[in-house]
Design a protein that fits this description.
This protein is of the alpha/beta class. The chain has a single domain, classed as Rossmann fold, CATH 3.40.50. It has helices spanning 10-15, 34-37, 40-46, 73-87, 99-117; strands at 3-6, 23-26, 51-54, 93-97, 128-132. The chain has a five-stranded mixed beta sheet with strand order 1-3-2-4-5, with helices on both faces. α5 links the parallel β4 (93-97) and β5. The longest helix has 19 residues, at 99-117. The protein is globular. The two termini are 28 Å apart. Residues 1-20 are annotated as: Disordered. InterPro entries: AB_hydrolase_1, AB_hydrolase_fold. Residues 1-18 have a biased composition (Basic and acidic residues).
Length: 141
């Protein structure tokens, strides 16, 4: 999975007494992590947040899918969960645009199911989520 990382200046982090949650940005259809890099990542990293923009399977510099379909809501949400499990030490805020917002909604639904089933937290806890012009749960605009 391609990830663009922009972290807060370590010297600035030492000056603050609080720890901000990491931010994970999920792009919409026909985009990749680059769409967050020009404005969003610099703004939030300069505001004290470690930022991670991910490219979903088959997008940007991420791996090509094995089949003709790059993934489903479930597989994309699972990829985000795997990224969080492997790379982050504290619960992040997920930010998703368009189709990325629908993926985040799927993640949250899986998070609640994970808690109900007590399956060992396949979907890590979140600090929050933000949906930017998101596709609604029905998939229709």
């Amino acid at each position: 999975m391609e990830v663009i990382v922009q972290k807060e200046d370590p010297d600035e982090k030492k000056k603050r007494n609080t720890e901000n949650p990491p931010l994970v940005f999920v792009h919409g259809s026909y985009h990749s992590a680059w769409c967050w890099a020009e404005h969003w990542l610099p703004f939030f990293s300069n505001s004290g947040y470690d930022c991670y923009a991910v490219s979903l399977l088959g997008q940007g510099e991420s791996d090509a899918p094995a089949g003709s379909v790059a993934g489903t809501l479930q597989t994309h949400a699972g990829d985000i969960a795997n990224f969080i499990n492997r790379n982050l030490k504290s619960p992040p805020v997920l930010l998703g645009h368009s189709f990325g917002g629908l993926i985040i909604q799927s993640y949250i639904a899986n998070l609640k199911n994970d808690q109900l089933l007590e399956t060992g937290n396949l979907y890590p806890e979140l600090t929050g989520a933000a949906l930017v012009c998101s596709v609604p749960p029905s998939g229709k605009r």
